[in-house]
Amino acid sequence: MTTTTDHRTAPHVARLDTSAKEPVDTVATEKAEADLEIDGEEAAAPLQSLPLKDLMQLTDIENIVQQLRIIQEEESQLDNSLDAFLQEKPSRIKAALQPIEPLGHAVVQLKSQASVLAERIHRTTHLADRISSKVRELDLEQSNIQKTIQVVNDLQDLKQCAAGAKAAMDQHDYDQAARFVSKYLGFDASIKSSPILESPYLYPPLQGRDYSVPDESVATANSTSQTSPAATMKDIRSKLLAIFVEGFDGAMLKQEDAEIVKYFKWFSLIGEAPLGLDRYSSYLCSGIRRKCQDAIKSSLDGSSQFSDLLTFLFESIANIVDRQETFITQFGGPGAMLQITNRLEREANVQSAILFEQFFEKRQVQRKVQEVQKKGKFPLNLSDINVEVREVDLILNEMAIARQRAGLFKRFIETRTQIYGEQAATVPSQASDQGGAGHSIGTLSQKLSNMMSAFQILDEYFIRNRIEKALKIDEYETGSAISTCVDDVFYIIRNCFSRVVSTHDARALGEFVKSTSHVIEMDYITNLQKKLVNGLGSQVVGQNDKDRLGYMVRQRSPRKLPRITLNNLDVSRDYLVKIMHELEQQVDQTHGPGSSGSADLERMKKHMGGFVDCCNLFKTVLQTWIDNLFNQLVKPKIKPLLTDMYQTYRYNLTEDEYRSYDTSEEAQFKFQSAMSKLMQPFRSTLTAGNLNQLMTHVVEVLAKEWERILMNMKFTLLGGLRYEKDLRAITAFLLAQTSAGSGIGNAPHREKLSRLYQISNLMNLESPGEIYDCWGPKMGPMAWRMTGAEIRRVLSLR
Fold first, then answer.
1. Which residues pair with 651 in a beta bridge?
2. How far apart are CA 101 and CA 92, in angstroms?
3. Are the C-beta atoms of 280 and 328 separated by less than 8 Å?
4. If you write DSSP's letter for every residue of 670-712 in order, what string do you get?
5. What is the C-alpha separation between 425 and 419, in angstroms, rounded?
C-alpha cells in the first residue's frame, strides 16, 4: 500500500520540485533512458505515436486502434520510468516538501476569514436593496403627490381664470379678459373637462397664490355660478370674438392704425390668430389699394410715368413685408408671414393689372402695335406706318423699367415665400394658404407676358426705323475711314441691346437677338452690299479698262467709294463684337455669383451668342467683296509688275554683274516703286483689317507669279545670293505695307512666301548633293512645301 501511495504522489512531487527549480537527478534520468533504449532494441524499433494534429485527421478504425495501442505502450513506459526515478531518492523529495507544509495552515486561516467577509458583504447588499426599494417607492409617491398638487392648482387656476374673465367683461376691460382667455387656452384639455371644477372647495387658492381679481368677488362668482368654468370661458371667448371683429372693422373704416394693431393682438390672445391674420392682411391690402388709387389719380396730369407707379407699388409691398415681419411673427405665429405675403402678392397682381390697363390705354400701345403689324413683318417703306418713333422710344423705356422692377419683385417674393414656407412647415394650419398667386387671368405674370410681346414688336420697328434713317442721312467726312451710318446704327443697336438686357428677361433677349440679327442682315448689310454693287459691280476690270478706284478719287465722290463701304463692314463687325463683350459684363454684374438668377444668366449668355452668326455674316460678306475688289483692281496689275521687273533682270550672273546689281539694287527699287503706287490708294483709305486681307491676296498671288517666273530662269551661285537678297528685301517691304501701325502679325504672309524661301535655300547650296543634308531622314523640323519633283526641277535651274 505504501509503495502504491508513493507512486501516485510521485508525479505531484516531481512538479513541485520543478517549480522550485531544484536540480534533477541526472543519473536516474540517464538510467531511464537506457532502459528505454534496451526495451526499444528488444522490441525491434516499435512504431511511434503520431502528432496530435495527425491523430485528429485519422478516419480508419484500424489505424486508430493501432495508434491507441502505441500511445498506451508509451504511457506504460513513462510510468515505469517515473516510478524508478521516485524510488531511487525519496529523501530528496521530502526535503523539498518541508518548506511548503507551514503554508497549509495559513491557507486554512485565510479561507476562514474570507468566509466571514463574504457573509458581511451579503448582509450589507441585502440591506442596500431594501433601502433602494423604499426610496423608489417614496419617489413615486412624491411624484404622484406633486402631480396631484399641480392638478389641484391648475383646477383652482382655471376657476379663478373664469371668475376673473367674467369680472373683466363686466368692467369692459377687454384686454384683461383676453389675457384670461389666453391663459385658459393654455390649460390641458383634461383639466378643462374635469368634473372637480364643480366642487366649491377648490376656493380659496392653494399656497396663498395671488390673482388679479379680489378674493371676495371671485368667491361670490364661484358660489353663484350655475355653469362650469369651461362653459363660462367659451361664452366669454365668443363674446370677445364678436366684439373684436366689430371693433376691427370699425377701426378699418376710420383708418385708426393704433386700434387695428390692438385688435390684431387681441385676436391672437383669444386663439383666433388665423382670423386676425386674415383681417390684418385685408387691412394691409386696403392700404396698398388706397395708395395705388391715389397714385393713379395724381398721374392723370401726365407728370408720372407708368414705371414709376409700378415701382411705387412693389416698393410699398416690400417695405410692408420688411417692417411687419417681426410684429406679425410675434402675434401670428411662425407661419403667419406666409399668409400675409401671399395676400400681398395677390393684391400686387390686382393693382399691377389695373396699372397695366391704364398704361396701355393712356399710351395707346395696342393701337401702335396693330399699326406696325398691318404692314407685315418687313415692310419696304416704314414711312407708311403712322407711329411716332419718339413715343415708341419712351414707351419701350417704360416697359423695360417695368419688366426689370417686376422681375426684382418676383425674386423678392419667391425668396421670402421660401423662407416663410420653411417656418410654416411645422404649423400645418398656417401653411395651408400657400397658393393663389399668379393663376388668374389678370395676374402680374400674364400682364408682363402681354407687355413683352408688344415690347418686341415695337422694339423691332424702332430699330428698323432708326437704321433706315441713319442710312438715309449717311455722310462721309474727309479723313475718316468710315461714314457716319456705322456710328449711328451701332449706337442705336447698343442702346436697344442694353435696354433689353436691363429687363433681365432671357426670353425677350433671345427674341431681340433673333430679330435684330435679321434686321442687320436685311436692312443694314443689304444696303451696304448695294453700294458695293454700284461701286465695283460684278464684272472683272481688264488691263485696258479705266481704273475705277482712281477715277472715283479724281471725281471726288467719297460716298460712292467702295473702300468706305468695305471699311463700314469691317468696323461694324468690330463694333458688334465690342457691344457683345460690354453687355456680357453687364449681365455678369447683374447676375453675379451668389445671386438667385444663375439659370437666367446662362440662358441670357446663350441667347447673346446668337450675334456670333451675325458677326460671321459680316466676315463672310466682307471677305467676298475684298476678293472682288482685289480681283478687279489689284490682281490684274501684279503680273505686269513682275514682268516689267524681270525684263532686264536675271540671276545667271557673273562676278562683275553681281557687284553691279548689288550696288544699284535696281530691281528692288523698281518693284517697291510700282507696288507702292499700286497700294497707295488702299493704304491711305482702308482700315487695318481690310488692308491686311487685301495684302494677304496680294502676297499669295505675287508668290505664285514670282515662282512661275523663277522656274523659267537660270541661276548661278552668285545669282542665288542675289535672289536671296531680293526676296528678303521685298518680303520686308510687303510686310511693312500691312503691319506698320496696325499691330497685325506677319506670320500668315511669311507662310505664303515659304516656297520662295525654299527655292532660295536650294539655289544657295554649294552642290546639289547637299540637298540630302536637309531632305529625307535628315529633314529635321523644317517643313518642305515642295515635292521631290519640284525640288529636282529647281536644282536643274542651277
1. 715
2. 15
3. yes
4. HHHHHHHHHHHHHHTTS-HHHHHHHHHHHHHHHHHHHHHHHTT
5. 10
Cell 441585502 belongs to: 126
Write the CB contacts of 281 (distance below 8 Å, at least 6 apart in sequence): 339, 340, 343, 344
**Helix count and strand count (H, E) for the chain:** 33, 0
Task: Read off the pTM.
Answer: 0.65
Dihedral of alpha carbons 323, 325, 328, 331, sign: negative
For residues 752 and 762, what is the distance between their CA atoms, to the nearest angstrom?
A: 18
Please state the three-class secondary structure of 528-571 as a single string. Answer: HHHHHHHHCCCCCCCCCCCCHHHHHHHHCCHHHCHHHHHHHHHH
Do 49 and 74 meet the contact criterion of CB atoms below 8 Å apart?
Answer: yes
> On the CB side of 643, how many CA atoms lie within 13 Å of its CA?
5
- The answer to whether 292 touches 348, Cβ cutoff 8 Å, is no
pLDDT tens, residue by residue, 102-116: 777 788 888 888 888
C-alpha 602/C-alpha 506 separation (Å) is 9
CB 572 within 8 A of CB 489: yes
Whole-angstrom distance, CA of residue 288 vs CA of residue 311: 13
Query: 3-state DSSP call for residue 492?
Result: helix
**Measured distance CA(209)–CA(215) in Å, rounded:** 11
End-to-end CA distance of the chain: 137
Question: DSSP label at 48?
Answer: P
List of residues 6+ apart from 279 with CB closer than 8 A: 245, 248, 263, 264, 267
> How far is 1 from 23, CA to CA, in rounded Å?
29
- Rounded CA-CA distance 195/650 in Å is 133
How many alpha carbons fall within 13 Å on the CB side of residue 448?
A: 25
What is the amino acid identity at position 642?
A: L
Q: Which amino acid is at 60?
A: D
Degrees to nearest 5, angle at CA 770 with 724 and 784: 65
On whether the CB atoms of residues 257 and 286 are closer than 8 A, the answer is no
- Give me the torsion for CA of 669, 670, 673, 674, rounded to 10°: -160
SS3 483: strand
| pLDDT of the residue at 550 | 36
The pLDDT value recorded for residue 590 is 67
Q: How far apart are CA 172 and CA 170, in angstroms?
A: 6
- The fraction of the chain above a pLDDT of 70, given in percent, is 77
Structure confidence by residue, pLDDT tens digits, 315-366: 999 999 999 888 888 888 777 888 888 899 999 998 988 899 889 988 889 9
Vertex 549 angle, CA 547 and 551, to 5°: 65
